[in-house]
Structure formats: C-alpha cells, structure tokens
C-alpha cells in the first residue's frame, strides 16, 4: 500500500525515528495504528456503557422514579456548601 502523507506527518515520523525509539516509518505508523485501535475500543466500550445508563435512566423516568429539578439543585447546593465548610 502506498499512501501520501502531509509534510507535517512526514516530519513527525522522522522526528520519532530520530529519537531512536523506532527503526523506520512503518514502526511509527504501526504504533500509531495500535494506539488508534485501543482508543476506538475504549470509545466503543464507553459508548455501550453510556447507552446502558441512558436506558436505565429512561426506564426510571417511565416508572416515575424522578426528582423535581428544584430538589436536585437544592441537594447539590447543600453538598457544595458542606464541601466548602470541610475545606475551609
């Protein structure tokens, strides 16, 4: 496979090779692709977990297990007030 890279990417690769950590451009690109693969896996796991949490939240709403927004804000304000007192 032949690919054209922007000049800044070529420079980036050359800089990495110059550090001695990589022998050639293929090593740098292989590492970059491995990191991309790991990141995408982590993102996919995060997305799946978020979808589960949303489903749980929606089911809770459908059952009527919700709090009034003013109650939530009052509780948060109280937690913040206590945290400030503890720090001060």
The domain tally reads 1
Portion in helices: over 70%
- Unreliably modeled segments: none
Q: Please, what is the average pLDDT?
A: 96
Structural class: mainly alpha
The number of helical elements comes to 3
Number of beta strands: 0
| SSE topology string | HHH
What Rg do the Cα atoms give?
A: 25 Å
Any idea what the shape is? elongated
Distance between the termini: 62 Å
- Main sheet: strands, sense, barrel: none
Beta-strand content bin: under 5%
Polypeptide structure, described:
It is built from 3 helices and no strands. The chain has one domain (7-87). By secondary structure, the chain is mainly α. The chain has helices at residues 7-18, 25-63, 69-87. 80% of the residues lie in helices and 0% in strands. The radius of gyration is 25 Å and the shape is elongated. It comes from Nostoc favosum CHAB5714.
How would you summarize what this structure contains?
The protein has three helices and no strands.
Key terms:
88 residues
Question: Which helices and strands occur, and which strands form pairs?
Answer:
Layout: H1 7-18, H2 25-63, H3 69-87
